[in-house]
Amino acid sequence: MITALQLRERMNETPFRPFRINLSDGRTFAVPNHDVALVKRNSIEVGIDLDSRSFAQKYVECAILHITSIEDISTEQAA
Questions:
Q1: What is the per-residue pLDDT for 79?
Q2: Residue 22's closest CA among 63, 69, 62?
Q3: Torsion angle of alpha carbons 5, 58, 31, 50, nearest 10°?
Q4: Given this model, what pLDDT does residue 18 score?
Q5: Which of 3, 11, 21, 58 is the most exposed place for a label (fewest CB within 10 A)?
């Protein structure tokens, strides 16, 4: 089970390593840099539809309870 503390620690790693969040309903969301996600107590907000400068066009809120895994991704996959 993934916790908010584990997500926060992952977001604060130096250097940052892009990762993908996998949810129990089959959806996945890439976190290419620490600026596109916000960890809250019971959820994480992830920016989606990033423009060429990594500004999110909208955000999706994911309940941490439904995160089945996180996995490293390459910089190319994060784009």
A1: 61
A2: 69
A3: -160
A4: 96
A5: 58
Are the beta carbons of 20 and 73 closer than 8 angstroms?
yes
Contact 47, 37 (CB under 8 A): yes
- Cα distances (angstroms) measured from residue 75 to each of 25, 31, 66, 79: 25, 10, 25, 7
Q: Which string of b and e fits 23-34 if b means at least 16 CB within 10 Å? A: beeeeebbbbee
List, in order of start, the domains of the chain with CATH numbers: 4-78 (2.30.30)
The residues, any chain, with a CB within 8 Å of residue 32's CB and separated by 6 or more, are: 18, 50, 54, 75, 78, 79
Q: What stretches in the chain show pLDDT beneath 50?
A: none
Structure token pair of residue 57: 């066009």
